[in-house]
Amino acid sequence: MSPLNESFNFFLKQLRESPFFSSLSEENLMLLVAQVQQTDFQASMTIFREGEPSQGLYWLHSGTLKAVKYSTSGKEQILHFIKPGDTFNEVGAFTTLPNPASVIALEHVKVWCIPRDAIRQQIRQDPTFAQLIIDVLSERLRQSVALIEDLSLRPVINRLSRLILDESDGNTFFRPSWYTQYELAARLGTVEDVVQRSLRKLEVSDLIEVDRQQIRIINRVELEKLAA
Predict the structure, then answer these.
(1) Lowest mean pLDDT across 1-15, 63-77, 80-94, 198-212
(2) For the sheet containing 109-115, what is the strand order?
(3) Contact 193, 134 (CB under 8 A)
(4) What is the mean pLDDT of residues 80-103?
């Protein structure tokens, strides 16, 4: 079997197992897979830009991406990180709107794209699929409202505490090489100096212990109080 066929067979398997596509028949899944476009991107490359016409629904096979918006002054706000198995750009794929954000590779990534016309055809044919799309878009809206609330009402140190808790594996928040202080600041809607001071305060208070590639939670109870 050629590497290309192996990739498409893997993608078909992923579609079968995804709740998002579970309502589609095997025939329709095969039709989608036949139209999939596969692309590799290196770190720092842009998958698509905010405001551009949408090409379709994207699926991340490997690596990590970030979805971002930029202010007129160029300040970056990370909306969320995209991990293997995640779909992204649903708004652009399912509506007539352009891409609502930019997506950038944080490391070498492999991305699949299902063309917009193929997705819209399935929407017309399968009401259950359309309902799943509504559910996904509703969740995206909820996440956006939560982000706005967080940035507007909570100090950086509280947002940082919540981020560490939410993204930790047990009591360890692992930071890949791409997860720099800049990326952490952009995720929290602030600047690197403020993040550094907040990390130092948490460390001095014996709530966390910071290493180069990880942050260990020392006092989860107090960190949760600060994050609440």
Answers:
(1) 1-15
(2) 37-41, 109-115, 56-62, 87-88
(3) no
(4) 86
Average pLDDT, whole number, for the chain? 87
End-to-end CA distance of the chain: 52
CA distance 54 to 46: 14
Paired with 81 in beta bridges are 66
pLDDT at 221: 95
Q: How confident is the model at residue 1 (pLDDT cuts 50, 70, 90)?
A: very low
Note if the pTM is more than 0.70.
Answer: yes
pLDDT value, residue 133: 78
**Quick one: average pLDDT of 41-52?**
95
**At a CB cut-off of 8 Å and minimum separation 6, what does 69 contact?**
50, 76, 77, 79, 101, 102
Tokens linked to 106: 């944080």
